[in-house]
Amino acid sequence: MSTLDAAWSLADAWPVAASSIGVVHSGGIETHGDMQRRQRLASVSKPLSAYAVLVAIEEGSVHLDDAVGQTGCTVQHLLAHAGGYAFEGANPVGKPGVKRIYSNTGFDMLAQHVEHSTGIAFVEYLDDAVFAPLGMHNTALEGSCAKDVHSTAEDLLQFVHELRSPILIAHETYMSAVMPVFPELAGIVPGIGSFDPCPWGLGFEIRGQKTPHWTGTRNSSSTFGHFGGIGTFMWIDPVADVACVMIAEREFDEWGMQYWPVFNDEVLHCLGR
């Protein structure tokens, strides 16, 4: 018997070929499915890549106020999807700090900036700064840092442990990443909807008061994480002291918003949150 049996039953009814799920809470770790099944994470790659940028900031190689891209755009803007760049495409579509425009381009620009600042290829820097020290041995960047990290649910749990009790970066740096940056900005969470405000941290989406949302109604407004269009998610709720990672073999579409919030609510309900 598992504390989360009711949640696992919901996951078993998902219209997917397979799913791998891990939940971390004050009582330990509970898992469901093949935790070593490896696949692309899609946009769950972004928090991992952002964490490498934060390590570079800690080392002094990169600074939040470094200029990157169009006039007025900085590392901080790009990490928070406030740089004025579209989802794809090198040309800006707005001014920095005006609107939350979700951008893969911005993250690719960040990777190039880290490479230029450190003299180390970003694929190597990400492994050296994040994957290797956290023991994420089945995780690697195989393309764009915005969407092409390949990993397992087991490895993602190692990252979750870091996010619950950081050792790679200072507490002050960590808190700056998981709190809203440019908190007044409106924007769109792709596949979910438009929100005003649309809170985001440095590489992490912040739940805030967004409704509807891919996390649950029981999740606190402080919940942070990310989901990926390939059918992946990771969230950490610091108020509930619960975190969850999930990798599924089905791309995010209507099924995600139909099943994920209900599942996430059941996880928190089973744990008495």
Automatic annotation (TrEMBL):
It holds the Pfam family Beta-lactamase. Gene3D superfamilies: DD-peptidase/beta-lactamase superfamily. InterPro entries: Beta-lactam-related, Beta-lactam/transpept-like, Diverse_Enzym_Activities. Residues 36-255 form the Beta-lactamase-related domain. This is Unannotated protein. It comes from freshwater metagenome.
